[in-house]
Design goal:
Layout (H helix, E strand, L loop, with lengths): L1 H19 L14 H10 L3 H29 L3 H4 L6 E2 L5 E4 L4 H13 L1
Antiparallel strand pairs: 1-2
Helix pairs in contact: 1-2, 2-3, 3-5
């Protein structure tokens, strides 16, 4: 059932992108927007619903990144000592701001990278 729903969503996005003539842009260009951002702006404009949609995308991607974090950490950084020096000024697991890396550094980097691209 979920696969069918995802296929319908992908087909709908593909149809709308082709209908509106939206094409991917180079991420290095100034004013870069993702395809989903351009599609949402084309369909609904840049009003409240645009920001609600982009925020929803961010929440969904954040939750999916958080789901895969333990698996990623188990394969890439099995010990906390490995991740200690990867980021010099992250917020530690206990919430204090210390010059050590959080164990959730891949999650932070992935979500921050996506949110800046949107």
């Amino acid at each position: 059932m979920i696969i069918f729903l995802l296929a319908v969503l992908l087909a709908g996005i593909s149809y709308l992108v082709k209908s509106y003539g939206i094409a991917a842009t180079d991420p290095g260009q100034p004013g870069y927007q993702s395809v989903l951002s351009m599609l949402t702006a084309a369909v609904f404009g840049k009003g409240f619903f645009y920001y609600l949609t982009i925020g929803s995308i961010l929440v969904v991607l954040s939750l999916s990144a958080n789901t895969l974090l333990p698996i990623f950490r188990a394969f890439v950084a099995p010990s906390r000592k490995t991740t200690t020096f990867l980021m010099s000024s992250a917020i530690a697991d206990d919430g204090s701001s210390t010059p050590m890396a959080s164990s959730s550094w891949p999650y932070c980097v992935g979500v921050c990278s996506f949110s800046s691209a949107v």
